């Protein structure tokens, strides 16, 4: 296969997020929307038309038909979390590379089944955490790794909240125990946990303790929660995620010499412009009226949205595998670590806010 041949994507289901990612597949130069499968052929046809799928895209009335199509290279799986283990394992067994929505599974044991199937078939898996692929993320990593400006990491705080409307809180799959049982923890909390792990260079904490006062709906799905994470060397992190508060997406990372702050870390305030600030060895002026020096403000511009960069990188890896390379193990490793912490938060909530020791 030549490097110029686009990776042919099949999409399983017509979830709302599939609108955004299918557009990204269309825009990415090394990928194309090749097939769409839904349990209803009418729904799939309407979705393809509404989202400007290529005229020659194949429309199927089942997920199996997409996986059985020999020309599909990779599948994007935006199905409810409860269906991930079944369809991702099947996709891997059919030698399809997998771009999987988060959370990747209901628990790490399920994800291990998915990862094992991918490894057995030699296929790439990557989760849909888009902000990892934004050029701002690489830029911020430079500050965090600079011991002269940032020093040693001491604490991390992340927040991702958004105010849901009554229809969401009643009907969205993220509030249904049989579909996305982890609710806000699985959705917004996934990003908070990944943000913490990213700052800590993916070093897992020793202990996780859920914060008291989570809010659950009448069927037991989490609408708002938080946790603290503790490392053996004394580092501490906290996060808060919610479907019930004003839109906020923040990371604050504090080192012995510097502080990184990013607002809009999951989705930048503007599609082509992302900001963050960094303070290093900052103090007060003589009369304690201002910071000296003030934090430096940084703007990272990109003409390519982060979801397109994600699809492009995933497709590059798939193309490399077609040319003889091995799958990139970084991505399933990051998915697994994020899922481990998520599982521990849920366990702590279920056990009355007991500390949960992390085992990798």
Automatic annotation (TrEMBL):
Which Pfam families does its entry note? GFO_IDH_MocA, GFO_IDH_MocA_C3
A Gene Ontology molecular function term for this protein is: nucleotide binding
Q: Which InterPro entries match?
A: Gfo/Idh/MocA-like_OxRdtase_N (IPR000683), GFO_IDH_MocA-like_dom (IPR055170), NAD(P)-bd_dom_sf (IPR036291)
Domain GFO/IDH/MocA-like oxidoreductase, chain residue ranges per copy: 146-260
Q: Which residues form the Gfo/Idh/MocA-like oxidoreductase N-terminal domain?
A: 7-126
Signal peptide residues are none
Q: What family does the entry list?
A: Belongs to the Gfo/Idh/MocA family.
What protein name is recorded for this chain? Uncharacterized oxidoreductase At4g09670
């Amino acid at each position: 296969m030549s490097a110029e041949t686009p990776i042919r994507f099949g999409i399983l289901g017509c979830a709302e997020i599939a609108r955004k990612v299918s557009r990204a597949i269309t825009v990415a130069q090394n990928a194309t929307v090749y097939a769409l499968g839904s349990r209803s052929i009418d729904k799939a046809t309407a979705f393809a038309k509404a989202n400007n799928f290529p005229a020659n895209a194949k429309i199927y009335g089942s997920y199996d038909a997409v996986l059985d199509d020999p020309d599909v290279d990779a599948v994007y799986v935006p199905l409810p979390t409860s269906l991930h283990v079944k369809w991702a394992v099947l996709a891997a067994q059919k030698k399809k590379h997998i771009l999987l929505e988060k959370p990747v599974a209901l628990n790490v044991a399920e994800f291990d089944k998915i990862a094992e199937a991918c490894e057995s078939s030699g296929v790439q898996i990557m989760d849909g955490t888009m902000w990892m692929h934004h050029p701002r993320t690489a830029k911020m990593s430079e500050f965090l790794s600079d011991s002269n400006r940032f020093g040693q990491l001491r604490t991390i705080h992340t927040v991702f909240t958004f105010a849901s409307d009554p229809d969401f809180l009643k009907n969205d799959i993220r509030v249904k125990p049989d579909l996305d049982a982890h609710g806000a923890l699985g959705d917004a909390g996934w990003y908070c946990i990944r943000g913490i792990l990213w700052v800590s260079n993916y070093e897992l904490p020793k202990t996780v303790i859920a914060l008291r006062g989570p809010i659950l709906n009448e069927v037991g799905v989490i609408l708002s929660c938080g946790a603290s994470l503790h490392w053996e060397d004394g580092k501490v992190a906290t996060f808060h995620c919610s479907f019930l508060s004003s839109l906020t997406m923040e990371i604050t990372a504090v080192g012995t010499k510097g502080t990184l702050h990013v607002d809009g870390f999951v989705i930048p305030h503007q599609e082509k412009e992302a900001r963050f600030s960094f303070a290093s060895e900052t103090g007060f002026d003589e009369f304690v009226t201002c910071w000296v020096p003030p934090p430096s403000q940084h703007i990272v511009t990109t003409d390519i949205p982060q979801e397109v960069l994600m699809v492009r990188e995933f497709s590059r890896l798939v193309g490399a595998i077609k040319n003889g390379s091995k799958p990139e193990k970084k991505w399933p490793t990051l998915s697994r670590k994020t899922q481990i912490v998520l599982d521990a938060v849920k366990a702590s909530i279920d056990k009355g806010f007991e500390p949960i020791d992390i085992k990798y």
